[in-house]
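Input chain follows. Return structure tokens only.
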Amino acid sequence: MYLSKLFISGFRQFGQEDASVELTFQPGVSALIGKNDSGKTAIIDAVRYALLSRDQMYFKVQPEDFHVDEAGKSVDDIEITCVLSDLNTADQAAFAEHLTYQDGTVSLFVNFHARRLAANGSARRWVEVNVRSGIEGDGPALEMTVRELLASAYLKPLRDADRELSSGRGSRLSQILYHVDGIKEGAEFDPDNPPATPAETGALSLLGLSEYFGHNVKKHKGVVDAQGAINTDYLKALLLSGDQMTGKIDLTEGGNEDTRLRHILERLELGLFGESGAQPRGKFGLGSNNILYIACELLLLGREPEGLPLLLVEEPEAHLHPQRQLRLMQFLKRAAKGKVKDGEGRKVQVILSTHSPNLASGLPVANTILLDGNTAHPLSEAHTCLSQSDYSFLERFLDATKANLFFAHGVLIVEGDGEALILPALARAIGFDLDEHGVSIVNVKGTGLRRFSKIFQKSDASKTCISIPVACVADMDVMPDAAPQILGLVENDDDPKWINPKRRWKAKKDFGADAPAIAAGLKERSEGLCKDDAQNVRTFVSDHWTLEYDLARTGLGSMVFHAAMLASAHDKICDGSKAEGEVIAEAETSFAKLWAECDEDDELTAIQIYELFTTKKASKAIAAQYLAAAIDTEAASEGFDAAAFEERLPDYLLDAIKHACGKTPPAEPPLEAQPAPAAATQ
């Protein structure tokens, strides 16, 4: 049995009717992810209100639980519906009168309804709560004994694991141990026939051991002497004639067997020890105790023979470093499959909320629910535009560095290190700091650009779309006609390589002999790269060829050239054999010479600059690092004109940055930006 669907209306961030939310969960581990205040805790608490949780069996609805709309008006009804699926025979027997039979399947609907009776939450009876079964909530009421079978284990955020596992009245450890198989097994203690051997002692139940211990305590010479002294020397002198009282020293184990067992368990605590068996104070911190606490909760869920095996965890990454987070996720997935130890155990469902890219990357995308704009978006199949092969691809390549996209206010998906390093600097220079706008850059390194963006596209466009703006930055990858010969790909215009069907590069003249044909071909190519754009996903294609070429051609020629020269001398700069200032001085002289040799033609100059990267003289990534630093330096200089700098940048990069930052760019960015006058561009 597992929680398959959850419907929430009028509860905290989630409104009613169109503003309500419906979620679908997968068996196993599911993750609620998203930025702060998106509703992750509200979803966890909605499950706890409807199904209860063992840390607190009863929840009192608070006035702030009722949704308040943007106009400040509060709703009067909260509705939470949990659908439990895959009930086995034992589950069906336990909930027989509450089951729903529909299309050949058996489900259990739990409908929680809270209705406001008075505007003032301090009134004696201001809210009415009903929990009923049935699709429409018109089935029998679920009594507390039934709801207790559905109560989940819950680990709150910033939990104090050390306190939870300590001894004390009603301790969480005692609650867990009480439900573990074997805790009540063993022989009873017979005071007339006490165990004579260690084997007989070990065969006693926990209660039997306690009674055996008490039996021996009462026979201890010190206890016997003290008891005798109290009665003979003191109590007797205080009694009146006819009083019949005798003091007796005993262990406080009153009550029935169940109560006595709970008292025993409440005296136990669970702690961590080193290899030597010692427990040095302060050696184990919050993270280690947190893992111990999670293990303890899973022990209960995996061993219980009945009830709903559901674990709710808020921020399981609390106090854990990244490697431990990954280890935790691996363990949770094993627990979900019932494979904590050898053989098959009870399968456990885990629903967690997290802000950790490490945990988010450790789960399949299909097991993720993205919270955005007070709306929940399941990313399972049939809810996104991802195909089965896309899911498989993302499971291989969605690592922790890319998983930060789930928590972003905006996303820039780029094809290489150059864009990943340069775009943040460009954005800062024009007043759109990506960190300030909560924008994450995802570097797919040339593969999967569209696969990652489809995460944010819902299959049903009629439903509320994901509001996170996603900008995909793609190269046009079409060379100027002069480039192949300059780069050594062909010798001249008659080279047979021009008509080789296996060549992997394209030039403008491949699209036609005149300007209109070339323009039409480039437009078709760009539209092909943008064909899957929809909802808040947009693709921005370079105006000409690649990032470095376009930057050099439109206005940053000298800066790109300097960066390339620094990259080619990077090893010498690092080992101290050449100074960075010396390389820059040489680059200024070389660029002036190159500009003159190219007759001040920005296209030819940009091709010659890009040739430094194609011949491996300069690393694109290292050059990007130098270029980003140069842009930051210029932007921080006195008298820097951000508007003038923006005019020197390719339009597609400006539009991509602004879209990711939430500023909608033009509907159709120009495909062929007109080059500025030579003096201005350089």
